[in-house]
Amino acid sequence: MPDIGASTLDRTARASTIESEVRFYSRHFPTVFKRATGSLLYDMDDRRYIDFLAGAGSLNYGHNNPHLRAALIAYLNRDGPISVLDMETEAKQAFLETFSAIVLRPKSLSYKVQFCGPTGTNAVEAALKLARKITGRTGSIAFTGGYHGMSMGSLAATGNKGSRRGAGVPLSGVTFVPFEYGPMGTFDSAAFIDHLISDPCSGVDMPASILLETVQADGGINVASAAWLESISDLCQRHKIILIHDDIQVGCGRAGTFFSYERAKGITPPDIIALSKSISGFGLPLSLLLIRPEHDVWAPGEHTGTFRANQAALITATAALDYWRDDSFSREIMRKQSKISAVLESTVRQLEPRILIRGIGLIWGIDFAPLKQPDFARRIGENCFRRGLIIECCGRNSSVLKLLPPLLVEDELLDEALAILHLAIRETC
Ligand SMILES: Cc1ncc(COP(=O)(O)O)c(C=O)c1O
After folding, report:
1. What's the predicted TM-score (pTM) here?
2. 151-200 per-position pLDDT tens digit
3. Can you list the domains of the chain with their CATH numbers?
4. Helices 311-320/66-77 angle, 10° precision
């Protein structure tokens, strides 16, 4: 087991004297990183860590992916512009044409692309704003356990009370409804919403939008079924409610297909899809909305921002789309999904059958809530870190360990990480 050296701890302590108390991940993974490649991070003492955090889902193609890096270096070497707001550029045109040819047209989708401010939360803000403008209504429906970001609009649609408290003002305009899967078991959310908006005495007005993650990621890896997704989509069609899919964490292949809703074969594609995190592929900030053409009612400049359509991010985003030219990448993700699911069932659940395992594609959760032992997942996460595996906790009371490897993770590293996890759970149990 690697031993955290005194020099590394000194450096970590030094950094924390100047950085704000708001820092988060550096507390959970107390070392100083200097190098990263593929699924591996190395610290200042050259200690190696398998990265199952993957930039919180922004590194689907791994750290410093050579194909993306080569495209970026070539662009920098030819003095490509980096920051030009949303002016027309070769890089932007190449991205839009490639995205259309590789992702949209083969799926018969005619979405328009809106570049938002560089974070996921800005895409969610823009989507909520646009839905209000389209419908002339004000409210939104979101789901308990959901996470959509930290700025006011997206925080109002985020369930976590600790995060919401940080706003310091009342967060309004959102009605929360139980997700399909939660602490109360399974729930027919579409029937409940239908009742809420049809009942003259429910106290809930017809909303502008319904905002959802098809897999609640930070909420504890709650995977909506195809039937549930279809029922929400059908409800939105019947009541002319704008359906917004927040695919910021589970889009770009995380759930096995490019868009996470694609597992619901009978679904009408959402009115708006938000993408960020892994759309640039390289961990560079990029955030966008896909909007049905009839809903693109923005006035020029109505949702603007300095860092929209960052050119370096567009270059790597275009190169990343090469992984989607055929379905071999998707098939590889599904192969690894079967492996993770089988290993977790045969190792972790063998140790303690009350532990719950949920996931799809390459996002998996090990839920220790039924053991009713506070801090259990956190202690296992710490044990994993000491053994060279970076993995974070999520879900209610942080009871779920979240497996989020790069989609390109090599089989040997996947096996090694799962073995570390097994050992850490056994030791903590
Ligand atoms: C589903 C989802 N939506 C929105 C966000 C917010 O993205 P950002 O942190 O880039 O603002 C996140 C971030 O984790 C997310 O997982």
Report:
1. 0.96
2. 999 999 999 999 999 999 999 999 999 999 988 889 999 999 999 999 99
3. 6-64+327-428 (3.90.1150.10), 67-324 (3.40.640.10)
4. 140
